[in-house]
Specification:
This protein is mainly α. The chain contains six helices and no strands.
């Protein structure tokens, strides 16, 4: 809100403090930090990542009741998906999951 109301520039550290950025890294280490995120995404369940992105896009501008309904529907869809079943089976079998985005 501060940034929007005042229109002032923020340092990277201040943007981090107010939750506008997730991580501040020293100059020259940006690519390595981005690669860390990419490595995590590479083994993440694509359906879950897609659903989270969609939830944020759909729920931020909505009221609490509408947000809850959208969230419930999308979470149930993930739970009932092939990837949801694979995640549970992999956890039970103590093995890495093999997600396919379905």
């Amino acid at each position: 809100m501060e940034f929007m109301l005042l229109g002032q520039d923020l340092t990277a550290q201040r943007a981090y403090e107010v939750g506008m950025v997730n991580k501040v890294v020293p100059l020259g280490e940006q690519l390595a930090a981005a690669q860390e995120y990419a490595d995590i995404f590479a083994v993440s369940a694509p359906l879950v990542v897609e659903t989270i992105k969609s939830l944020v896009a759909e729920t931020v501008p909505r009221g609490p009741a509408e947000t809850a309904a959208i969230t419930r529907d999308q979470l149930l869809a993930v739970r009932d998906s092939e990837d949801g079943a694979e995640g549970r089976a992999a956890f039970k079998g103590k093995r890495p999951p093999e997600f396919h985005g379905r």
